[in-house]
Design goal:
Three copies of one chain form a homotrimer. The first copy, chain A, is mostly helical and 207 residues long. Chain A contains seven helices and two strands, in the order H-E-H-H-H-H-H-H-E. In chain A, 53% of the residues are buried. Chains A, B, C: Belongs to the UPF0126 family.
Chain lengths: 207, 207, 207
C-alpha cells in the first residue's frame, strides 16, 4: 500500500535527522542509533501509550527497527565521505511529517475521541520524535523555536479531521491533508517563514 | 462543583507559568502554547498513564485544552504591556498545586494501591508538569533544586491519604489537605525556606 | 529468591548513581531522592508502560521505594565524610545492569513479542533510568556518549533470548546472560574500551 511505503520513507528520513543531530554531539555509534530510533518512532509511541493502544505499533512489526538501523548505518557511512544533502532531506522530512500526521490522525480517529484530541494526537505523532531527539541532545527542541513545523502539522491534521467528518473519500482526504503539510513546510523553507517569537519583558513598557 | 473550578484555575495558572518560562527562551508562539500545555496537564497525564487509566483525563473533556489556549494567549498579550504579577501568581500557583495534589490523590486512591503509591502519584500529579516544562527549556527542573515545593505536595498528599483512611468527611479531608499544601508553600515563599542542598565533595573531608 | 536479592541490589546501586549525579548539580535533598528514584525504576517503568502491563512493577511492591529512600539517605550521609568508592560502585553497577536486563527480558518474553522487541525492552529496562537521570540533570545521557554500556546490555539480552529459544535451563540462561553483561562492562572499564564516536563533518572530505 502506498501509505505504508511513505511510512517507511518517513521512518527512514526521521532516523537520518536523528543521526545528523547526534553527530553534532560527539555520541558513540550506539547512542547515534538510539537518537535515530527515538526520532523516528517516539511520536507514534507516545500516541499509542496515551491512547492505551497495545501492542505499540512497532511491537508487532519490527520492520520499523530494521529501517532505522539501516538508515542510521547508511547515514553514518555516507557522511564520512559526503556532505548530507540538506535540501533533499528537508523535502523528505516534509513528506515524512505529512505521512506521520495522517497516520496519527487515522489511528486516533478510531478511538471515538473529540475531534480536537484527534488533531492533537496527529500533531504529536509528527513532532514528538523530534522533541525527544533534541531533549536527549540537551537542546531546546527546534520545533518549539522556529519554522512553521507544528503549525503545518496542525493544519494538515485539521484538514484530515474536517474532511473526514464531511465524509469525503478516504484517499482524497489523505492526499489533501498530506499536501497541506508539505506545501506549508516547503513555503516556510523557501520564504524563511517563522511564527512570531515571544519574549517576556522583565521591565514593563508602561503601567 | 467547587473542586472543578479550582481544577480549571490550577490548569490556567500552570499554563501561565509555562508561558513565562518559555518567554525566557525565545520560543515561537506555537512552542509557547506547547510548554503551557505540558506544564498544565503533564502531571495528570503521567499519573493516568502509570495507572493505565484510559481515556486520559483530558481526552474526554477538551475544556482543559481550551483553558490552556486562552490562558496562553491572554498571558502573551498581557505581558506585552504589563509586568507579570509575580506575587499573585505564586499564590495562584500554590492553590493550583494544592488542587492537583488532591485530585491526583483522589484519582489514585480509586485503584486500591498501597498508600505510599497513592501519595507518590498525588505528588507527581502536582509537580511533573513543571519538571517537563523545565526539561523542554533545557534547564534543571526548579522543583528539584529549591523551594519547599515537592515537600509541600508530599505533606498535603499524606494528610489526604491518612485522614481518608481514618474515614474523615470527604470535604473536610480535601480542605485540610489543600490547606497543608498552600500554607507550606506560602511559608516557604515568605520566609525563603529551602531544604538543604546536597553536594558531593570530590575530595574527602576525612578518612 | 536469588534474583530478587540482586534486583534489590540493582535498585540500590542505581539509586546511589542517581544521588551522585544529582550531587554535582546543587539539588536540594528532595530533588536528590527524585533523581535516585527515576534512575532506579525509570527503565522498568517505561518497559511496563510500553507493554501495557499494569500495575507497574513497583505499584504492588513498595519495597523498591523504601530501598531507594534508604540508599539515598545512606549515600548522602556517607559522602559527607567519605569519598564514594567509585571502583566498587562500578562493579555493583555492572551487576545491577545485568540483573535489570535479565529481569526485563524475562518480563518482556511473557508477552509473545518478536524476539528483537524482547531484546530491546530488556536493554531499555537496564539503561533508560540512567538516561532520564541525565536528562533531569540537563546533560547529554552518558550511555549515549561512551562506555560499552548499551552494547553490554544488548549482548546480555541477546544471549538470554537466544538460549531461551533453544530451551536451555532457566537458571543457566540467567547466569550466562548476566555474566555476559558483567564481563563486557568490566572489560570496558579496565581497558577503557569505547565504541567509535560519530561526528558529522560539516565540510566534505571529498566529492
Amino acid at each position: 500500500m502506498f501509505i505504508h511505503l511513505l511510512d517507511i520513507l518517513g521512518t527512514a528520513v526521521f532516523a537520518v535527522s536523528g543521526v545528523l543531530a547526534a553527530g553534532r554531539k560527539r555520541m558513540d555509534i550506539s547512542g547515534v542509533v538510539v537518537i535515530a530510533a527515538v526520532t523516528a518512532i517516539g511520536g507514534g509511541t507516545l500516541r499509542d501509550v496515551l491512547l492505551g493502544r497495545h501492542p505499540i505499533f512497532w511491537f508487532h512489526d519490527p520492520t520499523y527497527l530494521y529501517v532505522i538501523l539501516i538508515a542510521s548505518v547508511a547515514t553514518m557511512l555516507y557522511t564520512r565521505y559526503f556532505r548530507p544533502p540538506h535540501r533533499l532531506l528537508l523535502l523528505a522530512d516534509a513528506v515524512g511529517l505529512a505521512t506521520f500526521v495522517v497516520l496519527g490522525a487515522n489511528a486516533a480517529s478510531m478511538a471515538a475521541l473529540p475531534f480536537v484530541i484527534v488533531i492533537l494526537l496527529a500533531v504529536m505523532t509528527g513532532v514528538v520524535g523530534g522533541v525527544i531527539r533534541d531533549v536527549l541532545c540537551a537542546e531546546i527542541p527546534l520545533v518549539l523555536q522556529k519554522d512553521i513545523y507544528m503549525l503545518a502539522a496542525l493544519a494538515g491534521a485539521s484538514v484530515y479531521v474536517v474532511l473526514k467528518m464531511a465524509s469525503w473519500d478516504n484517499t482524497l482526504v489523505t492526499l489533501l491533508a498530506m499536501s497541506t503539510v508539505i506545501i506549508l513546510r516547503l513555503a516556510a523553507i523557501f520564504w524563511h517563514l517563522h511564527l512570531p517569537r515571544y519574549q517576556v519583558r522583565e521591565t514593563p513598557l508602561k503601567g
